[in-house]
Amino acid sequence: MQTRFTLPQSSIPTHWYNLAADFPEPMAAPLHPATRQPISPSDMYAIFPENLVAQEMSAERYIEIPEEVRDVYALWRPTPLLRAVRLEKALNSPAHIYYKYEGSSPLGSHKPNTAVPQAYYNKIAGTRRLATETGAGQWGTSLALACQLFGLECAVWMVRVSHDQKPYRRLLMQTYGATVYSSPSDQTEFGRKWLAEDPDCPGSLGIAISEAIENTVTHPGTKYSLGSVLNHVCLHQTVIGEEAIKQMEEAGEEPDIVVGCAGGGSNFAGISFPFLRKKIAEGKKYRVIAVEPLSCPSLTQGELRYDFGDTAGMTPLMNMYTLGHDFMPPSIHAGGLRYHGMSPAVSHAYKLGLFEAAAYPQNSVFEAAVLFARTEGLVPAPESAHAIRAVVDEAIKAREEGRKKVILFNLSGHGLLDLTSYDAYLNGQLRDE
Ligand SMILES: Cc1ncc(COP(=O)(O)O)c(C=O)c1O
Prior knowledge:
By secondary structure, the chain is α/β, with parallel strands linked by helices. The chain has helices at 50-56, 67-73, 85-90, 112-125, 138-150, 160-165, 167-175, 189-197, 205-217, 231-237, 239-251, 266-282, 298-301, 344-351, 362-376, 382-401, 419-426, and strands at 4-5, 15-17, 62-64, 81-83, 96-101, 129-134, 153-159, 179-183, 222-224, 257-261, 287-293, 303-308, 317-322, 356-360, 406-411.
């Protein structure tokens, strides 16, 4: 029985898919933080190059992937699709469970799908250095390598809890040539303010973003790069779903349910947006589920309103599900899901009822992660394990209802550098905050 579905290198997608072109009603425009009027492209040129701003605002359905980017994608794309037959058996479920494995990239996650084009577009626009933030370190390592491949310098503000919990990711970023600061840092006015108020501040993605933006606007030749949330990031990630559609065809099945974990929303957008296109254009009835941590539940408990993407309030105001830009998430181990807001494109799709959302406490997430590791062999990233939790619950429901369901999920990254959180779980030290 075939359980692994691979595509040849020639099947690397040639275009990214832009869901904005197919929304039944348009997304609300981002607003200028000072005037509260819709932002113009030139307002963003201080932190992003023009070519990426054009993508951010594009209404084109398909955007061609430059050859230089596809050449780097060829290091790991197309990623494999696998059927988790041993997990199905362990659950004694009639469900067929498929996962798209983005952890097979050299960086161990989906993040290089956008780090590579962002570095490329900055390089051709004349940028010399990129500044960014990172939570778990997955994004920072991806941008560090992408910058190295395109000859850019890279500076990363890493959320302090992850910086302290995950020294190996910091070492990886440094191996790829990046400079890494623990955030809040003494490198920026905003960081110094936080340190003065609370020397033990664990940091947050919102603070680290503010620091990276402050550094960008005070350093000529530097631009800012964001690893999630924005339209162009979601766009770049759609290679995941485009490949998955072909691979499901190869497997001879169509998913009933499509699942992804959601932090800022980019891997969820990546797996789901091409399926949402089929839902909108072809009337497909997929159930699509975004899964978030109960401790940082922007979709399930946040409000849809204009809010800042960072803590200091330097970004444009975006219409998104948010817990408030000053929300300080508890130090859960899924560092990559500790973000107060949700991508405006994902938020808009949620508002339009195109998908559902679920939230889980971390112990139940790790229970599913360990079951997956013990059956399929792969140790998932704690972020990705949120999707696995939902998949396991859907497979159990399928068993109880006696119905075959085809479930597809995105395994956004491996957890081999997250073993301290497994240690905490296995020793009963994880708290459900
Ligand atoms: C493996 C993994 N999955 C998911 C996420 C969440 O980000 P996003 O919602 O943008 O995919 C992260 C963020 O760092 C991550 O490292």
